[in-house]
Amino acid sequence: MDDFSRRGFLSASAFAAGTAALTMVRPSSGNANAQDATFAVPLDPDRADDSFGRVRRVIFAVSDGMSMGTLTLADLYSKTVLGRETFWPRLMMRPDVRSGLCTTHSADSLVTDSAAAATAWSSGVKTYNKSIGYGMDQQTLTPILMEARAAGYRTGLVSTAKITDATPAAFIANVPQRTMEREIAQQVLDRAPNVVLGGGRRYFHDGITKDFSGRFITNPRAIGDQRQTRSLVGIFAEDHIPYALDRDPDDADLMTMTREAIGQLDYLQGGFLMQVEGARVDHAAHNNDAVSMILEQIEFDRVVEQLAKYTMGRDDTLLVVTTDHGNANPGLTVYTDHAKRGLMSLSNAKRSFDWIFGEIRQRDPELRSQSIQREIIQYATGVALKSSDLEYLNSDKVEQGNIFDQLDNAASRLGSLLSNRNGIGFVSKNHTSDMVLLTACGVGAEMFSPIMDNTDIKPRLMHLMGVQRMGHSEQGTVHVRR
Ligand SMILES: [Zn+2]
């Protein structure tokens, strides 16, 4: 199911190029005039003008909250348990691919949240944590998808989070606080990117979807093969898309959503800008849930592999793969056979921590029965906790806010109990200030430097796409130039 080729996700010619097993098409010489000559025939009905740049298709792939330890653990797990290496490190070894580190601090915090980080990507401006497209002076910042669309690019968002969550939201919406998800949902529908696929149905209630001018669906099988000229919004879960470990066969997944989104956006000569987010890496890291974090990262990695094949089979496409911040900085930190045995033990897991605590609350609302807790945790993780472990798990002496004295919620306490078995430690349950990895491949990759700030990315994308920046308004509505 991994390969995008399994269901006609691309037009035949584009797909044939995409599956050419990493056959590299060298980036163009950068002769913009020669490139523009091929843009003369307007084949995309959405296309507004001839302003496409050297790069016509940009895919911005985000593993949310991915510390370097997460990347490492996913690779080690994949090699040790699954017998194959992950793709992203292999991609970095290619001489025509650029990788570097990005600083991520926000305007008001050395440790960013996803809202400020995604606003930095989308607007090129540092702002306060929790802001979606609002600056420090409460001015609205024009989201990058709006600017790309005004220049004739098709636009897309794919996420395993609620689509109203910070990372996708900041590419299209403006609200002063990320918790204003009803307003974000309304803006997603009003601003209508060509394709939006993710979770968050609770914010897309009938009251706002009935007036939507595009097509709104809640079943991933209803996407259909035909490309849409109007907006397609597919919201496939009440909240986030379930973790890979917890999914039913009918649930959406990142590979399918990404494939379908490109199918909607890959329109003959047209250009597009799309964000693809593996969001739940971050959620699992907050929970100190090692195995879910690793499996979400591996899912993201497989999507990146297909996106890289697609990109390298073309001479007009740029793929950027990165993360918005570190999270909990996990690391395998035991020696000799313990390390390998620890990783192997993760393969016994059947469910995420979220599932475990949901199940415990459902079966024992009073949270008093250690036997129920032990049974559920053993089923989900393969680990039989001792009575003293369960006492620690249910301990209430930790509600002191001193996160390094003792982990201060049940999920991180369960994570620390399992660390004693799997050897993977976490420094906290929070984001971290670490620099983060960015890899660029395809046309324009050479513009990405070894060290950048997260606000340095937008100017590069805009330059490569030939998109003019629109002014930021003082307050309120963003005015889109069409
Ligand atoms: Zn987070």
Model description:
The protein has 482 residues and is α/β, with parallel strands linked by helices. The chain folds into two domains: 47-330 and 435-464, Alkaline Phosphatase, subunit A (3-Layer(aba) Sandwich), CATH 3.40.720.10; 333-425, no CATH class. Helices cover 36% and strands 13% of the residues. The protein has 18 helices and 14 strands. The strands form three sheets. Strands 5-6-4-3-7-1-8-13-2-14 form a ten-stranded mixed β-sheet, with helices on both faces. Strands 9-12 form a two-stranded antiparallel sheet. It binds zinc ion. The site of zinc ion (ZN) has 6 residues, from helix 11.
Coarse structural class: alpha/beta
Can you tell me the number of structural domains?
A: 2
Gross morphology: globular
Please, how many helices? 18
Mean pLDDT: 86
Question: What's the CATH architecture of the largest domain?
Answer: 3-Layer(aba) Sandwich
Report how far apart the termini are: 39 Å
What share of the residues does DSSP label as strand, in percent? Answer: 5-15%
Major sheet: size, sense and barrel closure? 10 strands, mixed
Largest beta sheet: what is the strand line-up?
Answer: 5-6-4-3-7-1-8-13-2-14
Furnish the topology, listing elements before pairings.
Blueprint: H1 12-18, H2 32-37, E1 57-63, H3 68-82, H4 87-92, E2 98-103, H5 114-123, H6 144-150, E3 154-162, H7 166-169, H8 181-191, E4 195-199, H9 206-209, E5 215-217, E6 232-235, H10 254-265, E7 272-278, H11 280-286, H12 290-312, E8 317-322, E9 326-327, E10 331-332, H13 336-346, H14 353-363, H15 370-381, H16 387-393, H17 410-422, E11 424-425, E12 431-432, E13 436-442, E14 451-453, H18 457-465
The chain binds zinc ion.
